[in-house]
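Project standup — Tuesday

K.O.: blocked on the structure for the chain from last sprint. Re-posting the sequence here as requested.
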Amino acid sequence: MRVDLFPAVRGLMAAGTRLPRLQVVAAASSGFSGVSADASPGQIVEALRPLITAGTAEADIPGVGRVAATFSGRAGRAADKIALVTGAAQGFGFEIARDLAAQGAWVALADINVAGVEAAAAQLNADIGMPVAIGVAMNVADAESVSAAVRAVVAAFGGIDLFVSNAGVLKAASVKTQTVADLDFVTNVNYKGYFLSVQAVSRVMALQHAACPGAWFDIIQINSKSGLQGSNKNGSYAGSKFGGIGLTQSFAMELVEDHVKVNAICPGNFFDGPLWSNPKTGLFVQYLATGKVPGAKTVADVRAFYEAKVPMGRGCTTPDVMRAVYYLVDQLYETGQALPVTGGQVMLK
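H.V.: unblocked you, prediction finished:
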């Protein structure tokens, strides 16, 4: 089946600038569509346009079959958007996906932890009371895995309106002692993974734009306050996050021609999530072990030290970040920005 045609079909079946979810009612008996696999977005759209009557709810597409355009009717700030969130099997990524689903989105949760992300998607569907989420396997550092995951999302929903690049890892260590293996691990996930994911997702969005020129789409990287200022004995992580902002600005300049806004959110410390609080691998444990906090004897000492750095006296939470997500989606005149959500700990100069 020519899944690669779905984003164009979806755009041509839009209601104004609102793009529907696509569902295949009856698959085509032949995979031949008459559209070359290496055709440009414009060529694909012009080949499909005669097959789709404006405002129609169903259409027969050679190589695809009979497809139906579906609008869920659910309300919310993300109503009927198709969202892909990486690093979504647990923690911050799962909570982002859960909020998007609660706000009316169709959500694809992606993660290298296949069993975990499938269970997370099942939990969202149970919470909402209808099948609005899927779990897909994705290793963001592997181009073939990323491509396969994006294809699976398009096959399930028809396209992608919002991509939240949340997958991230951290290995805290002094530059004097950190291994090359740990440096590569952090860089491959945080920097290369962001690049590869946007590379795949942007092609989908470009095709949707060619079919529905009035619509806008969003790519949002969940960066870090460490992308705005350096981090002592944590250079590989901070460097990858600084690099992520460089990618964000560069992507924004390039992809605006496809009506894709690209922004980063730079949260403060998410103290209650597994990145910080995991009793074996969390940052509190790592920072205690590396002596990053002078005089700290316990994990509680490390946490108190970091809370004292925040003018608002607490760590960042999912609602804090989701307000920023929805602001960036709603704001049509903002791209290439790194938005701090740090409780005042990091202020833009």
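K.O.: great, moving the ticket to review. The first strand starts at residue 21 and ends at 27. The beta strands are 21-27, 58-61, 65-70, 82-86, 106-111, 133-137, 162-165, 217-222, 260-267, 338-341.
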